[in-house]
User: Which sequence fits this backbone?
């Protein structure tokens, strides 16, 4: 009987939706306790609808907007928590769920059963669709009355690479922030500064930084990167996890401080 109960528990965990598994309860708790206004909006990319999580800062004047691109794990609790933290710093945050409508029954990230299904869906997204979805979210948020029209983009993991790519497409960006994401091949059309945040224990990505640095310099573009010793891939999320390592926590704190400083410098 004990073995049967254990088997049933394992099966129920596997079958449970990603959101129900509660892999980031600490992030959900922070979201629930936030005093800031959070809302869901739907934007259109042609015939496609994209659900976006928006958080407004508690500020007196109009604020810049930050377009946040989620990890390969979709618009998780942590991804939404990151949006809330951006708003806490004084920016309007918009985080589109780029796998909107692609889950079971036409659901979003939270409807998927198991992490592998989410990562498969995100990794198979057509590049043109992603760009169109990001444009729809960016166009929406820069036109809300509370926005002053300034736009930044930041992405993490898979989204880090997409934020770098988006800088080659969107020429009204104030800056692009790339968290452990690889660079695109075409750098010539980048019109804004690009800032990289990388992990020391992540050779798959960080080993490409010297070439990216040289290529960006040759193209005459602004690119500044930092590699955080001892940190692993995903340190902005792992560094917030109460169970995270000291190196990831330090990289998170240092990366967050640098990110905010650079946005302030860019105006």
Assistant:
């Amino acid at each position: 009987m004990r073995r049967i109960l254990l088997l049933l528990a394992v099966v129920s965990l596997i079958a449970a939706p990603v959101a129900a598994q509660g892999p980031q309860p600490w992030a959900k708790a922070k979201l629930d306790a936030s005093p800031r206004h959070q809302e869901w909006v739907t934007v259109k990319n042609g015939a496609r609808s994209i659900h976006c999580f928006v958080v407004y800062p508690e500020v007196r004047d109009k604020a810049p907007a930050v377009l946040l691109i989620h990890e390969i794990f979709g618009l998780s609790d942590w991804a939404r928590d990151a949006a809330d933290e951006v708003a806490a710093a004084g920016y309007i945050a918009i985080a589109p769920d780029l796998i909107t409508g692609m889950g079971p029954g036409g659901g979003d990230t939270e409807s998927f059963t198991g992490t592998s299904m989410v990562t498969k869906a995100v990794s198979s997204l057509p590049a043109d669709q992603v760009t169109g979805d990001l444009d729809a979210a960016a166009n929406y948020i820069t036109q809300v009355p509370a926005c002053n029209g300034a736009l930044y983009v930041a992405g993490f993991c898979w989204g880090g690479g997409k934020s770098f790519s988006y800088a080659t497409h969107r020429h009204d960006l104030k800056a692009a922030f790339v968290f452990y994401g690889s660079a695109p091949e075409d750098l010539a059309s980048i019109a804004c500064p690009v800032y990289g945040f990388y992990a020391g224990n992540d050779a798959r990505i960080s080993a490409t930084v010297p070439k990216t640095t040289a290529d960006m310099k040759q193209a005459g573009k602004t690119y500044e990167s930092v590699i955080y010793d001892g940190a692993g891939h995903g340190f902005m999320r792992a560094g917030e996890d109460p169970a995270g390592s000291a190196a990831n926590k330090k990289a998170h704190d240092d990366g967050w401080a640098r990110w905010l400083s650079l946005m302030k410098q860019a105006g």
